[in-house]
Amino acid sequence: MRGLLVCLALAYALPARADTTAITSVAQLMVLEPGDSSYKLFHGAVWLDSDKASTNYRWGGLQCKGRDLSDTSIQLLFAAFRSEYQVKLEYVVTDYKDKQYRCVTGFTVSKS
Question: What's the pTM?
Answer without folding.
Answer: 0.81
